[in-house]
Amino acid sequence: MTNQITQTTLKNGMKVMLKEIHTAPIISSWVWYRVGSKDEPTGKTGISHWTEHMQFKGTKKFPANILDKAISREGGRWNASTSHDSTRYFETMPADKIDLALRLEADRMVNSNYNKKEVASERTVIISEREGHENEPMFRLSEAVQNTAFHVHPYRHEIIGDMADLHTITRDDLYEHYRTYYVPNNAVLCMAGDFESRTMLKRIRELFEPIPKGAIPPRLVRPEPEQKGEVRLSVEGPGETAFIQIAYRFPQATHPDYFPLQVLDSLLGGASGLSYKTSRLYRALVDKEYAVDVSGWSEATIDPYLYRITITNHPQRKPEESLAALDAEIQNIQNVLVSPDEIKRAVKQARAVFAYGSENITSQAFWMGYVEMFSSYDWFTTYLDKLAKVTPQEVQRVAQKYLQPKSRVIGTYIPKGVEA
Question: Does domain 231-415 have CATH number 3.30.830.10?
Answer without folding.
Answer: yes
